Amino acid sequence: MATLMHLAARLILCSTTLAAADPPGPKRVAETTFSVASGFFDGPIQIAISTPAPDATIRFTTNGAVPSTHSGTTYSGPLTLTTTTILRAAAFKDGLEPSTPDTRTFLFPRDVAHQGVSPAGFPTTWGIREGQPVPADYEMDPDIVNAPAYRGEIVAALKSLPSVSLVLDPHDLFDPHSGIYSNPRESGPDWERPAAVEYLDPRSARGFRIDAGLRVQGGWNRRPEESPKHAFRVVFRKRHGAGRLRFPLFGESGVHDFDEVILRAGCNNSWLHWSGEERRRGDYIRDQWMRDSLAAMGHPSARGHFVHLYLNGLYWGVYNLVERPAGPFVAGNFGGAPHDFDVRNGSNLLEGDGQAWDQLVRSLESTTSTRTLPAGIGSQLNLTQFADYILLNLYGSNGDWDGSSNWYAARRRDPPGPFRFFVWDGERTLENPEDNTLDYDAADSPPRLFQRLRTIPEFRRLFAGRARLHLTGNGALTPQAAANRYEHWSRQLDLAMVAESARWGDYRRDAHPYKTGPFELYTREEHWRPEIRRLLTDYFPRRTSVVLRQFEAAGLMPEPGQ
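^ thats the sequence. predicted structure below, dont judge the formating
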């Protein structure tokens, strides 16, 4: 068998730590097992499904639905697979509860490369928006797949990153009334659906399989006319299976225990944005770079990397798999439980209450008539961490944060601790090296806190010291250090962007021209690589000195001791 088949057969799936405990009540039929592990294949494979339960009947599905006595196919012998297939199986026996459904993903990259316009069982529209149907798009565009520049790379592109496979009942995805993809603007627990999740890495023998809950994630990009490629939140709850994911998802160091993760799809500065200017800047790296940079400045920050995503066996594109800096993240990094903290996502309170936040805002609003820091401000706000957080956003010239969204903040409640801030949704950054957002202000936001603090000499001295630390010498925001972090991800994504281009690069040209043109076929050679080169050869080399000049002109760089 081919090398990739051998690799797939060796794939270690952490099912022992992730398997759900049997619920109380009637006994279940013994679990099903598959003779071949999930993975990547380049030729036909034969798969046997079995259960140790005598006289049990095995039923299986290939469309993502959970097998039942009324749905699926009765298993009668080994199955031969030649194309990408999702298998879900369960065993049934009179007098016993069915076995817990078991799911496996078998990916054939050569088959994925020719994913068609109208896959069987998938709808032609994704719901209704403002009275108009949202056009569905599934095809891997032949203009990319068959292009001389890319046809020799497409299979390798699909194996250049780990893959995440999400499998759920088709109705839970696409039903016009209850499907989360057909109703992406709906949110909350009522719009969480059970899903099987597999993480498959063709570059190693590590991965996991777990049952979880799935929601559509995000704000503006929930609007399907704005972005048909939606983000997802994967939540690990006992009602779905294992209560937590325990896997070194972001490397061997740091937290390995997760309540939830986010699959970010990209909206601003992506090939699907409504603005032709932003589509031209599509790079998919900016938010990851911002979070990495906060970590490089010495502070806890949400980690992430890039994956290929599959929905019920269909390729869905390149996604940024990341931690969400909500309560579980804060507790994992600072100790304790989520309820030990006040945690905010902009104006949304996620944990605790808003009393400390309101007090902090009131304290700093009072500085309009004083030149000294409010008494006790250091116990309300970690001034050093806040200065670094603001410095990073000014360096990136963040164009999309306000009082309601695109930032997280947290503080310990008992004993009371100061607020710290965390980068989130930093896609509107790294645009023009001459941009200046020093005077941006919005009520109840980090920029408003900064505008009040910058009037106080003591804070200006602190800010200047942090600016010198990070913008000079070997600092995290010096030209080479900033470019190196960015180039790391551009190398990781270079090949994968061929697959992203085939999946989504033609959407605004062929499926849904929306708002401003030009409506082009977005490709790695003509769009993505030029934007990467622009950032590496123009933005990063120039930006540090530009920011320092802006700070000096604004009186934010006093000499030490002044």
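The chain has 18 helices and 25 strands.
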